[in-house]
Amino acid sequence: MAGEDGWIQALDTVFVMPEDYRDLTVDRPAALDTLRCAEPVLDLLVEAGLACSEQDGVQLFDRYDLFNVALASGSGSSLPEISMRYALRWMRGGPATWTEPLDWTFAIELTCPLGEGCGPDARWEHARLQPEAAGGELLGRRTDPAGATVTDGGTVIEGRGPVRFAGELRTRGELRTLVSPRLKSIVADFLAEDYAWARMPEALQAEYKRVLAAGVAPCITASLALEEEFRAAGYECCTRRGWILGVLDLAHSWVEVVDDDGVVKCVDFAFRKLTQYAQDADPELPEACLGSLLNRLLPTSISADGTMARHRCRGSDRTPGRRTTVRKVTRQ
What we know:
The model has no long low-confidence stretch (mean pLDDT 93). The chain is globular, with a radius of gyration of 21 Å. The chain has 332 residues and is of the alpha+beta class. The protein has helices at 4-13, 28-35, 39-47, 63-72, 79-87, 96-99, 181-192, 202-206, 208-213, 219-232, 269-274, 285-288, and strands at residues 24-27, 53-55, 58-62, 102-111, 123-127, 137-144, 149-150, 154-158, 163-171, 237-244, 250-258, 264-267, 290-291, 297-299, 309-313, 316-318, 321-329.
């Protein structure tokens, strides 16, 4: 259990939200529920600089700050620490468990952000799921309402919402390693910077030079930075947006590069960093993240900094509410 000093040290070392991205909307009871610390500890964090505002006598905090401080606290009892340990428990398995076929069901529900509902011009679009990009396959797909148009870029539904995309898919993996000395050197140099991982808004992650300068490299940031390095070295590559399945269905990004042997290699710095939050992760997994296709990744048709879902309503483009549920199917 981390003492008071452990919590203060965590605050001193983590990336905190800059003012232009700070969203102080989490009240004190919810903050305590996330941190699972004593009330005096939260008071000490506020005194030490944890961003906080007061409105009508109610303290408000940023959800990303709370998550990052809790994860770095070493308390062992905060909600982020417990959730990550549980979600990453599969990392204890060996290489065979990262490549075997896995079946999943998925459901994505999009809702209009306007409380009064959609206008007659409503249009919905979601990035196309592409399990085949990592050796998997889409087994079935349904939409509600029916009558969706599927394009290379995504699935489109016209009409009032909410709308739902659902189906079944299979993922697979394949162990691969980088063979190009130049690619190995670029990756080694990036790893040597020892960037931390942190949760933050996707728009901030896309400002990758700003985030890297702070010593942090979440998935979008790392993917865009490595893509730039690979392209500068003359390699064909692209970033990819998707999910890590089973990790709270966490939206995720990585970079794919064509190696000297002509094979596409998946370089996933952020996934590699996540292994440090697992309990007894297999020691071979971090290296596998630097080239392999892993059955826990679900690719989509968009780039790392692409928009997963769009909504057109009442003459304006809007960001829809999105709820994603992916469940592993247990084979008999």
